[in-house]
Amino acid sequence: MVVEMIPRPYQQEAIDALDLHLRTKKNNPCVVLPTGAGKSPVIAWALQRWKQAYPPLRAIILAHRTELVEQNAEEMEGISGENVGIYAASIDRRDTNTAITYASIDSVAKRHGEFPPCDIMIIDEAHRIPAKGEGKYRTFIAAMLKYNPAMRVVGFTATPYRMGCGPICHKDHILNEVCYEANIAALIKDGYLCPLRAKTSDHRPDLSAVKKSNGDYQIADLAREVDKVVVEAVAEIVGIINKDNRKSVVVFCVNSEHCQHVSDCFKAHGIHAPTVTGKTAPEKRKQTVDDFRAGKTRVLCNINVYTEGFNVKQVDCVVLLRPTLSSGLFSQMVGRGLRLHPQKDNCLVLDYGQNIETHGPLDRIDGGNVRLAKCKDCHEMFSHAVGACPSCGWTLPKREVERMEAEETERILHAARAAEVAILSNQEQLLDVDEVTCAIHPCKGAPAKLRVSYRCGLQMVHEWLDLDGDNASKSKAQAWWAQRFGWPEAQTMTVNNALSDMFVGQRIHNKTKTIVVTMDSGNAFRIVRHNLKG
User: Fold this and answer.
1) Looking at the predicted structure, is the pLDDT value of residue 309 above 80?
2) Which of 123, 126, 194 is nearest to 158 (CA)?
């Protein structure tokens, strides 16, 4: 049955941008839509448009899980009314003669010879395409391009970056350019995604000695550390979800042993929290999700199973008991709570893995820059993630690859951290002030200002007082000073007078308990208000 659906404004923008890109450029585009923003219908509407313009069109849409294959196919049939094919061995479907086929990459990777040439190949969760090697996606894409060298590859993802690779779009990668990207904060503001709240805790593991492997924490080493705080963390989680009346809680764990320990701790508090891992039988996994969706189960523990393709809209709490250096994994875990549902006003993110501190606000993650390498033979610059020069084939030495990956890990670990409770950049963040310093700030063509700098952990936040300025700005600066030190001192205060006091920074610090900040468009903190000591 055809369901009458009208694209939301940003969905229509995405369809138009993708269509324009394919008509005017020769490279392969990627559409970036946050979890819950509706990638499946956007894919269906785009295919419908192209099919109407070119009836002989053949397309194949790849996903890595059968659930995603079925979900996307149902969306297409509901929007267009057209019968589509499905190729997924796990559900015993192997359609190859349909114009539009939704397929599991695991099922078709070595069966490209069964398909006729395609005009369009769409990759859902496109961040899974490796930048190099002979993986399933790259092998299948290469084979299909032999049948039709003009075939276009289109990516859809919520996280356009990959650990150890950076952004997935680059001239040397399969996907070359982001043609459209929707911003999470804007979609929340416009009412298309669920608002997020975040809390961190003192019950979190010491990650300083945890080994790293392939750009992320080594699982066995990580599991030993996080397991040390499980009892205290779960006790706190239970208190929070009971107080907030959270009804659908998804918990992300590290490995099977850790996941079972977490489940047992919930059970000790009278809460049934079944576990789902990659080894859980499909029938049991489906039943567990069905019970969770029906409200029969309140808490669901998993290991990276529900980072993608988990469409349970009523999730109102996401618990991160799994630290990660992967921006994509962090974004995917939090994204489980972004979908709208009548039973929830917001989704609470409980971070016990220092993930918000590591990666920053969810809507400001960009995966860094593409790391470039220089060919020793032809001197061309290329993405180090592909491992070899696209022009002459010179291969990056293994030692150089390892060095660049180690540098990337260090960059993530030692980059400026975000505030502990900032899950979105436009949310207010409360920062403890560790130190205050003052300095002169020269202004071209105007009197110098007093720069007041607050050190809050690893963050530096600044504001400027125009004590020598014109009437309006000077009055504002004097009011700031009077709030701390009284009007008599404020009325005579100048920049030079302030700096003549060698303890002025300490005096301001003594009056300042915390500051509340937001992040501006330039990724700099702006002070919203000060919480002063009595």
Assistant:
1) no
2) 126
Radius of gyration over every alpha carbon of the chain, rounded to an integer in angstroms: 26
Q: Are residues 259 and 125 in the same domain?
A: no
Q: Is residue 382 part of a domain?
A: no
Residues 6+ apart with CB under 8 A from 397: none
Structure tokens at 454: 């607050």
**Which 3 state secondary structure label does DSSP give 372?**
strand
For the stretch 370-410, pLDDT in tens is: 455 666 766 555 555 556 666 667 777 767 666 665 655 55
* pLDDT per position as a tens digit, 225-251: 999 999 999 999 999 999 999 999 999
Cβ-proximal residues to 414 (8 Å cutoff; 6+ apart), any chain: none
3-state DSSP assignment of residue 389: coil
CATH of the domain at 218: 3.40.50.300
For 153, residues 6+ apart whose C-beta sits below 8 A from its C-beta are: 28, 121, 122, 123, 141, 174, 175
Q: What is the 3-state secondary structure (H, E, C) of 205-273?
A: CCCCCCCEECCEECHHHHHHHHHHHHHHHHHHHHHHHHHHCCCCEEEECCCHHHHHHHHHHHHHCCCCC
Q: Are residues 49 and 172 in the same domain?
A: yes
Task: Give the integer Cα–Cα distance in Å for 492 and 475.
Answer: 12
User: Over the stretch 338-381, which tens digit does the pLDDT of each residue have?
Assistant: 999 999 999 999 999 988 877 777 766 655 544 556 667 665 55
Q: How far is CA 243 from CA 118, 197, 238, 247, in A?
A: 54, 15, 8, 11
Q: How open is the CA angle 21-22-24, to the nearest 5 degrees?
A: 65
Q: What percent of the chain has pLDDT over 90?
A: 54
Q: Flag whether 302 is in a domain.
A: yes
Whether the predicted pLDDT of 1 surpasses 70 = no
Question: Ranked by mean pLDDT, which of 33-47, 66-80, 257-271 comes out on top?
Answer: 257-271
Judgement on whether residues 461 and 337 belong to the same structural domain of the protein: no
Q: Which of 119-133, 321-335, 394-408, 466-480 has the lowest mean pLDDT?
A: 394-408
Last residue of one domain, picked from the residues 148, 182, 216? 182
Which amino acid, one-letter code, is at 174?
I
Q: What is the mean pLDDT of residues 16-34?
A: 94
Say yes or no: 198 and 178 in one domain: no
- Full domain range(s) for residue 436: 429-532
Number of domains in the chain: 3
Domain-embedded: residue 380: no
Contact 513, 501 (CB under 8 A): no
Query: Per-residue b/e over 7-17, b at no fewer than 16 CB within 10 Å?
Result: bbebbeebbeb
Share above pLDDT 70 across residues of the chain, in percent, rounded to a whole number: 87
pLDDT given for residue 364 in this prediction: 62
Identify whether 377 is part of a domain.
no
Helix or strand or coil: residue 385?
A: helix
Domain stops at, among 182, 206, 237 = 182
Co-location of 462 and 357 in the same domain: no
Which 3 state secondary structure label does DSSP give 456? strand
